[in-house]
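Re: export button greyed out
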Amino acid sequence: MVCCKECIELLNDYLDGELDPKIATSLEEHFQDCPPCIAFLNTYKSTTKLCRETLKQVEIPEMVQVKLQEFLKHNIRKP
Amino acid sequence: MSAEDKETEERLVRELQAGKKEVFDEIANLYQRKIYSLSFNLTRNQMDAQDITQDVLLTIFKKIDTFQGKSAFSSWVYRITLNASYMKLRSRKKEQYVSLDDALPSFNGAGFQKEKIRDWSESTESALFVSETREVIERAVEQLPEKEKVVFLLRDVDGLSTEKVGEILDLSVPAVKSRLHRARLFLRKKLSNYFDEYYSRVEQK
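Workaround output, generated via the alternate export path:
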């Protein structure tokens, strides 16, 4: 039987599906009896998802795009 | 990246190395958003990210002959981007990082969680939280130490594989995983603090 500490240490490998099947099963058994670890698992997953959604939206602003084009023209495309 | 994209990229690199300068625009198009996005997430400053993107594109152009194909071209570009970003960050005043240890979960002697854990995972879709969680996340990422921050940005934000991140940073797979896990625990804690505060305000009313 794993404790919360081991469970949380193994979360990353568990979510990547890289745990030994026996260990994964004992983790799942722990989750069934431990609402705080379920909450931890859910919020750990949400953290990754939320951060990705928030930070992935970086687009090059139009003004920067224009500057970049000018830069390329002057520094790279010049004859 | 699909096999076809990889082939196109390899062809472009070979052509540029052979002196066909006009293909550089295509290479720039393939990479400029990735370069800008990573450098912006590292510096959180539009001007800096613009400077870095320009520097990186120019370095790719000038140093293409030194790229030997031992690692993927994309890994080479990521490394140049990281170096340029770190140069920029070093020129700034030293920032105060917090210790990640304070954000790690705490356990009692038997290894059980000591804290009360609120499950806020269902709340994150609510429009109510979108702009505030964005601020919380941006501030928390800024506080991450560089080692953890870069692994988190490459793996979780850019979606690169653990192996690829290891190749870029010259780290073993377990080292990448352990840094990523620490970063996630820290960010989770910051988000948890935010949701705890929010719900305790609501419950008091």
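Chain A has one domain: 4-75. The button fix ships in the next patch.
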